[in-house]
Amino acid sequence: MQQQDGTDTRDDAPERQDPGEQEEQLLPQLVAHLREHRTRLRQEWSNRIQAAHLLEAMTPQEMAAETTSVYDNYVEVLETGSVEALQHYARDLSERIIPRGVETHEVVGIVLLLRDVLARSLFEKYQQELGLLNRVLDAYEPAANRIANTVAVSFVEERERVIRQQQDAIRELSTPVLPVRERLLILPIIGVLDSERARQLTEQLLTGIRTHRAKVVVIDITGAPDVDQTVANHLVQTVDASRLMGASVIITGLSPKIAQTLVTIGVDLSKMNTIGDLQGGLEEAERLLGYAVTREEGANGP
Fold first, then answer.
1. Of the given ranges (64-78, 210-224, 228-242, 271-285), which has the lowest mean pLDDT?
2. What number of CA atoms fall less than 13 Å from residue 229's CA on the CB side?
3. What are residue 250's DSSP bridge partners?
4. How far apart are CA 213 and CA 19, in angstroms?
5. What's the CA gap between 200 and 258, in Å, rounded?
6. Which domains does the chain have, with CATH numbers?
């Protein structure tokens, strides 16, 4: 039925589809196309990766395996839209490739290259139907950008986790708390002692005192070339904290420069048990623990 001005008022006019419904209808078509041409598109993607000099830390066999895996997971996420599954895969991928020396920009680069390769393939397929092409790209691009962002964030998070683990391991190796005998610990300090390392040293030492129920601790700073005023104060606080936990502290290897720093900040060295070298410090520690200290004569001695 028409009004006088010619306007069609029929109720059977076609309804406009919601953009979300259009995307749901188009995505299965996209996924089917990308799976049908999987071999060709993956090879094109690999060629572009090599041309961009990405993933060069990996062998050709490793790169072939990873690009196949990434391609298949990429298409699967396009199909399911599962961000959780993508995050799990991205973390798994990061765990595998970070030890091989792959950098963050490389991961972001290969994912963006894959996004572009697939977009070009869709353009070639639908270029004769511009209206449909626009709807296809409207469905593809948000999903592809979400994948790229999720992979990049997951890789950065995993890389930061690995770096933190490595830093913790290095710190533990550089300031080991060693049980010499029952109730006796030794803490050899080697290298530059900055504020962060001094804080970590205190934490490790106090934990060691509690774990081993130590009564005497020997802190050997022979290998520390220098400490500034802040670190010197921290060292004094470490001694005081150890005493509060019931452990006596002996400091060995005190250089004239470090001793001067301690005096400059007002530390009364007479209140600190300092011994010239580590051997002497261990002997003093054993005396404090009630052990009889004897020196062995050399094989050719009298």
1. 228-242
2. 4
3. 218, 273
4. 68
5. 20
6. 19-171 (1.10.490.70), 178-288 (3.30.750.24)
